[in-house]
Amino acid sequence: MGFFDSILGRSKPPEADLDVLFAVPQAVISMQMEGFTPTGSGSVCFRDVEGQADDTAMADAEKIISSSPGSTVTRSDDRFGFHWLTVTRTDADVSGLVTDLHAANSSLADAGFSSALLCSTVVFTTPAGKPFGLVYLYKRGTFYPFAPDTGERRDNSLELQVRGVVSADVPIEPDLTKWLAIWGAPGLA
Fold this sequence. Notes:
Blueprint: H1 3-7, H2 24-33, E1 37-46, H3 53-66, E2 71-77, E3 83-89, H4 94-113, E4 117-125, E5 131-137, E6 142-146, H5 156-166
Antiparallel strand pairs: 1-3, 1-4, 2-3, 4-5, 5-6
Helix pairs in contact: 3-4
């Protein structure tokens, strides 16, 4: 951060730290104690970049993940035009899932698309059987809970409850306005 940035009150956002994804298994243990069940599925979301280069990077990430035993990967687009690489583990192994998501993020970042990376999700079911996501914001280096409810509504009280459950395990996004609704995200619809 430069001199003028500090005078004008600008702050530099934290650097993305993909290694923080490896803290998710500990958060999962905390969530399981509260009745949440990991589905073995998670996704990486990114914006489209012009040209074929991002398609090649996606194909490389798919190849890496598909070579991992018990992992499958699918591509999809949401109604907002974002791309999703969804990883599903047949054994619901969260450590393996996190490793696969890290590989996908790293592959895209190493190919020069770090500015296009938006978030990663790890999907759960709530004690009531509804979908629930723990979301990693790539550009902020933080997590937040996302609890979609009927229609395009959220269960904010559940999100705040989970924040308290996992705050000792993963860095939680302090700015609630950054807790974006990711409607239509794979596994969370």
